[in-house]
C-alpha cells in the first residue's frame, strides 16, 4: 500500500518532525496534558495512568502500542513498570525518533494497521489511543489484536467520535463496539466526554500561553492548527456533547 494514500500520512510526517524539535510544542503538551507524549489528540496523563493498573507487576511483561508515534507514551509506561515495549506506526519519522529515545528493551516497527503482524499470544497489554480509526476493517483488525493478546490480556482504547468517526448514540453503538461484539470480546467502557470538553479549554489556554514561542521557532502554522482544534469547544457543553464523544474501553480476552 502506498503510504501517501493513507489518512493524514503526510501531515503526520510533518507533525513528528516538528514535535522532535519544537520546545514550544513540548511545553504546550506538558501544560495541556500534564506530560509531553507528543499528543495530537486527547490523551492526558490521567488517561494514560489508568493503563498502569492493567500491566502485570511480575513476569516477562510485553506491551504493544498501536500507532505509537514517537514512543513517548510507551517510554513512560516502561519507566513505571519495567515492561518490554513494542510499538508500530506508519510514520517513518516517528519510528526513527522512538528508536533513538527508547533503545533498551524495546521494538519499534514501521507498519500499517491491518497489514502488520505479530506472533500470537505475545502481549499482556495492548493500547490504542486515538488510532483504531485508521483500520479499514475494524472487525478484522480487532480479530488480529485478539490473536496477539495473551490469555487474560487487556486491550485499552481511547476512542473519539464526532471527528474522524461519526457520532453514534452512545458507547454501545460505536463501530468499535460492534467489532468487539463480533469477535466475542467482553469490555467495560467509561464515557469521558465531559473531561475532554474541559481538556479542550485547557488545551486552548496552553497554546495561547506559548503563542510567542511557536512564532519565534517559525511554527506559527502549528499554533494556528492547535487553536483550530479547540474551536468546537467554544459552545455550551450540552451542545458540544450532541456532536462529540470520547470513551475509554477496557477489553478482555
Protein architecture, described:
Helices cover 44% and strands 19% of the residues. The chain has 253 residues and is of the alpha/beta class. The chain has one domain: Vaccinia Virus protein VP39 (Rossmann fold, 3-Layer(aba) Sandwich), CATH 3.40.50.150. Helix 6 (138-148) packs across helix 7 (175-182), helix 8 runs antiparallel to helix 10 and helix 9 runs antiparallel to helix 10. The chain starts with 8 loop residues before the first helix and ends with a strand. The model has no long low-confidence stretch (mean pLDDT 94).
In short:
The protein is α/β, with parallel strands linked by helices and 253 residues long. Helices cover 44% and strands 19% of the residues.
Write the topology of this structure.
Blueprint: H1 9-21, H2 23-33, H3 45-51, E1 62-66, H4 72-81, E2 84-89, H5 92-101, E3 106-110, E4 123-129, H6 138-148, E5 149-161, H7 175-182, E6 187-191, H8 193-209, H9 211-217, H10 220-229, H11 237-243, E7 245-252
CATH topology: Rossmann fold
The tally of strands reads 7
User: How many structurally independent domains?
Assistant: 1
- First-residue to last-residue Cα separation: 30 Å
Keywords, separated by commas or semicolons:
Rossmann fold; 19% strand; 253 residues; alpha/beta; single chain
